[in-house]
Amino acid sequence: HRAHHRRSTFGTIHDPEYAPIAQWGRLRLLGFIGGALVVPLLLVFRWGVLGPVSFLIPPLRRLVLQRASSLVINLRYRRPLPPRSRARGWILQEATTTAVCWIASAAALLGGIASWWVLQWYIVAAGIVLVNQLRTLAAHRYEQYDGRPLDTTAQLLDSMTLTGWPLTVLAAPLGLRYHALHHAYPTMPYHSLGALHRRLLAELPADAPYRHTLQAGIFSVVSRLWRRHHRPPTLPLLSEKRAAGGA
Fold this sequence. Notes:
By secondary structure, this protein is an all-alpha fold. It contains twelve helices and two strands; from the N terminus they run H-H-H-H-H-H-H-E-H-H-H-E-H-H. It is about 55% helix and about 0% strand. Strands 1-2 form a two-stranded parallel ribbon. Helix 3 (about 40-55) runs antiparallel to helix 4 (about 60-65). Mean pLDDT is about 90; it is low at about 230-245.
């Protein structure tokens, strides 16, 4: 997640949480949202099958660590291999997660866990992923897709502030709906962002960059993505604004 906030990597292939979604067509958007139905099954396969098998096949182990150990939207992202100091922790976490997968699967097959409970687990997990997919679509404009490093103001302008309710509040109750502020002040706790947002709106001038991040809600942003197709970016980089306006 730190790579997503770093100026040198935000919006590049080294950013796991950013993709050129503004360029996607409707079919790909539907695939992204519908992927919530598959992710819970992929997670079980990753931790219950790929993880233990990868210890027996070194090339597969490297692939699993780099490409199957992060929840990302940038499919080109390769996670750095863990340093030696963290290798033992990774192995312990993987072994524990694998044990949970195997024990739960064995219990379900042997009748120790009712099939209805397994279905409930799947529905809850898929629902969590679905909400997260929609929140992800509403977190940024996803228009800075040329790979150039962005300054803090440009990151702010590409991020969203969702003011709608009640669905938006229910989807991001702790303050993640103030995603623009999260990028401006990444170390600030989510539960403090709401108060800061209200103070800024009370004091900032009408042409302040932060006001350009305001959106009505999650579904408003998602519907805008659905309608836009391949329109060019609406907010230029700060450097381009300065070149055009001289200030």
